[in-house]
Amino acid sequence: MNNSIYKKGLAVVLIIALIVMATLGIKLSVKENEIMYTSSPDMTNNDTVLDNAEEELSCIYVDIDGAVNNPGVYEFTKGDRVIDAIDKAGGLKDTAYTKNINKARKLVDGEKIYIFDEGENIVPLNLYNDGSEGKININTATKDNLMSLPGIGEVYAQRIIDYRNGKLFSSIEEIKEVQGIGDKIFEKIKDSITINN
Prior knowledge:
It contains 5 helices and 6 strands, in the order αββαβββαααβ. By secondary structure, the protein is of the alpha/beta class. The longest helix has 57 residues, at 2-58. A hairpin with a 5-residue loop joins strand 1 (59-66) and strand 2. The termini are far apart. The protein is 45% helix and 12% strand. InterPro entries: Competence_ComEA_HhH (IPR004509), Endo/Exo/Phosphatase_dom_1 (IPR051675), Hlx-hairpin-Hlx_DNA-bd_motif (IPR003583), RuvA_2-like (IPR010994), Soluble_ligand-bd (IPR019554).
């Protein structure tokens, strides 16, 4: 008799254990599905954030000026070359001096490319500014660039250009030889100008 009670008791315990395990298994399965469902949108958002970050890192901006048809600041993809910048700026003008242009050079974010006209004084130094200094080269700057300096308006900018057409500046102090630019204006602009790229 003890043996039969023991078998019945064991059977009841096993049935209860199976019911408990089945109930827990269903609950775990439901929770697992909920977790998978709620984590899925977050994963999509993370992928989107990563895609946007990668896109932002591959995007660069370059200012192209001088003897191009449509000068301006353009957006490029990292790895693009000077020829891509020239194309985006509408191509070269007929008067462009092309002997000093390395069309195969890779673009650098924030750089300024200046394409000289054949009649312009050509600076034999580095012909582009990679944006590392942030200073305006008074030997190559456009009128608009010069006018961005404090105290330099359209008239003074044109005088600077006229002066350098005769000869290039050999020092930043030499800008004081331009009519109307004295010590007062020089003090305002000296930290923002250079003669070197």
